[in-house]
């Protein structure tokens, strides 16, 4: 009997202990959990950009992600003369140079600072593509290159395709061959001509069967007389030829290999009178040789 009574008494004491001390223990655990969540949230703050290059006179919006409704964000520029920032995070470039924008997130007594490095450069006043013509096989791709002046410009070329169904181009200048034919890729800058048009340069892109790429490259390399033909005349002839290789109804197969080269040579001779151009080219080369031998 004494043992049973002692066991019941011990159970009773344990229950009293739990009721008395658990309420004191639980808030501590809850506070620890809240502190961990707050720290996690604070570490989750991030900017949409950690560094950016701006053209003088241009603006962009700096944003802080993952902020709570009761948090406040303030922005400050280390050098407002180079780049200023307003209360909404709009950064505006004023002068060539380097500075830092600091975004500070405050929530209660917690404060977190995030930085974005700003480089301000001059705008471009000229642009030139390094290649005037590219030949690609279906599904092949290539990366365009441009030369812009001044060399330290912060401006990026804006690329576009005249016919994206034939050749697509990414914002970074990577072209992808989609369909047999020919189209033009444009590289543009903000500077304008005296007539008010934006300055740009173009590149012809011919898309053919992959096996015909080397044949076409060899054809153009072995026909230097094409350099004496006007650029517009040659471009128009190539555009007409490669975009009419197959009738719209698909009644004929696209020529390949030697048949393609033969058809191209015949077409260009008829359109551009290459026989006369070759004669002029040979005469010009002969004069150059004679001048060099004297």
UniProtKB/TrEMBL annotation:
Top-rank taxon: Bacteria
Ranges of residues in domain BIG2: 41-115
Keywords, in A-Z order: Coiled coil
Keyword Chaperone in annotation: no
SMART domains in UniProt: BID_2
Pfam family, one: Big_2
Coiled coil: 264-294
Protein name from the UniProt record: BIG2 domain-containing protein
Species for this entry: Herbinix hemicellulosilytica
């Amino acid at each position: 009997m004494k043992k049973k009574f002692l066991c019941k008494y011990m159970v009773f004491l344990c229950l009293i202990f739990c009721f008395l001390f658990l309420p004191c223990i639980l808030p501590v655990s809850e506070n620890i959990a809240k502190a961990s969540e707050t720290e996690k949230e604070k570490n989750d703050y991030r900017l949409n950009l950690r560094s950016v290059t701006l053209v003088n006179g241009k603006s962009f919006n700096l944003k802080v992600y993952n902020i709570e409704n009761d948090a406040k964000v303030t922005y400050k520029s280390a050098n407002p003369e180079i780049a200023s920032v307003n209360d909404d995070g709009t950064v505006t470039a004023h002068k060539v140079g380097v500075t830092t924008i600091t975004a500070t997130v405050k929530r209660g007594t917690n404060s977190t600072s995030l930085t974005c490095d700003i480089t301000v450069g001059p705008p471009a006043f000229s642009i030139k593509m390094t290649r005037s013509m590219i030949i690609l096989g279906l599904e092949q791709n290539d990366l365009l290159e441009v030369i812009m002046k001044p060399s330290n410009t912060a401006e990026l070329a804006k690329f576009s395709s005249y016919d994206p169904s034939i050749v697509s181009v990414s914002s970074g200048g990577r072209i992808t061959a989609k369909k047999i034919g020919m189209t033009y890729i444009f590289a543009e800058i903000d500077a304008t001509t005296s007539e008010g048009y934006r300055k740009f340069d173009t590149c012809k892109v011919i898309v053919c069967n992959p096996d015909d790429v080397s044949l076409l490259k060899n054809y153009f390399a072995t026909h230097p007389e094409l350099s004496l033909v006007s650029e517009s005349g040659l471009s128009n002839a190539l555009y007409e030829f490669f975009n009419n290789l197959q009738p719209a109804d698909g009644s004929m197969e696209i020529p390949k290999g030697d048949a393609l080269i033969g058809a191209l040579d015949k077409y260009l001779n008829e359109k551009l009178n290459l026989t006369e151009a070759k004669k002029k080219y040979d005469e010009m080369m002969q004069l150059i040789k004679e001048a060099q031998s004297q």
